[in-house]
Each structure stands twice: as C-alpha cells, then as structure tokens.
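pasting for ref
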Amino acid sequence: MSALLAIHRLEISIAGNRICRGLDLQIDCGSRWAVLGRNGCGKTTLLKTLAGLHPRDAGEITLSGEDLDTIPRARLARMLGILFQEQDTAFPGTVLEAALIGRHPHLAPWRRETESDIELARSALAQVGLANLESRILSTLSGGERQRLAIAALLTQDSELCLLDEPSTHLDLYHQIHTLRILRESTHSGDKALVMVLHDVNLAARFCDHALLLIDPETLLHGPTREVLTEENLFKAYGYPIRRLATEQGEIFSPAWND
C-alpha cells in the first residue's frame, strides 16, 4: 500500500531564504505527525507547500499516489483539509453555517447541504463543545471559540489528510487537551492522517506518534516521536537545554532553568 502523502527530495524557499533541502518523508494513514522548530524556521511555509499553496523549488509531492500538482482542485479539497493560524470570520454567518463550509467540497454545484451534512456538522460542533452556539453570529465569538469552530469545520470536511497550523492557538489548557484528543481519535479508523505544527513539545510527545524537527535547511530530523524528540536534538533545534523528566504520569519535557 502506497503512502497517503509522499515527499521526495523536497526543496523550499521563501523570500530567497532556504527552508529545507532534500526532504524525503512518508506520511501513512493512521499516523499523526508533529512539525516543530524555532520561530521563522519555515513550519507554516512547509505546511502550505504540502497543501499546494506555496511553490516548491524542487522535489515531488504525491497524495494517495497522485502528483499533487495534477489533482483537480475540487477533488483535492475533498482529500485534504487545512487549518490556518488565523480564522477569517468576516462574513455575517452563524456558527452552524461556518461548520457546514467543511461540506462544500463534497457538494455538487448549486446543491444545498443535505440533512446528513447538517447532522455531521452538528456532531462536530458537539465534539468541540459548541453545540449550544450554533445560531450565534461569528463576530460574537471569542478567539478560542473561533479556533474550536475551525476544528469543527475541519472535522465536518472529513478529509483523508489534515494539515493543521498550531491547532492549540487561543485555546485554554482544557480545550488544548480536549481538542487534540479529538484529533487523535479521528485517526483511529486508520484511513486518515494528521500533520500538525506545534510549539509545545509535550503536546507533540503526547498526541503525535511521529515528529519532524526543523533544525536548519540541511538538518531535518524525522521519525517516531520518541526517537526524534531527544534532549540533544531539541537543544540543536531551539538553542536551549531541555530535559526529559520521568513523572508518575509519564515523561515530560522541561526547560533546564538556569537563571
């Protein structure tokens, strides 16, 4: 069985700055990948490139065995879901209408959502704790509520591959854990995969089984989370000593406070 997403000899740059060179990566169904690295190292640009939204300098990207560049955009929208850092809530719609945007790639032209689509959206809203807000106007939502709504729309889209740029942004501690649990559970059927840009190493270690660590354009470490997220590798990536500590609940990562 071929990989859901396969990357071969990928080279990316932005504004003349090299982000990665010679990246080979395979994302299989059922896997959850964390993308980590310093601010400005190119995590978001990499995610946009994997979505076909940023041009690559060289290399190949295939989704379900097809060249990403040749997949019709309408079909690609059904196969691939994207969560950006900032959500656009400018249009005067309701929470339910925004969640239903996730079904648009699945609808024929000029067709309205079916009862099945609406139930799928309502189920996603319930999962993220917004079931009682489906009639609210988007402009009245808090930042955290907007982020959870964006997750609900992504769940409603029901894509094979989800690319998420900092899904825990704007969320309090409870909703960070709850939302990442929902995303983890979405891969349990074995027919979906997640690639998530994260800043919290502990969230990456807890909810992802694989990691891609961007150290510099020539040093891109990837593999099982425990093998990649070592004290040595994290120091190279962030330039600050980080310790892996054993606790009753399992291992955690902590900065080595020395001030």
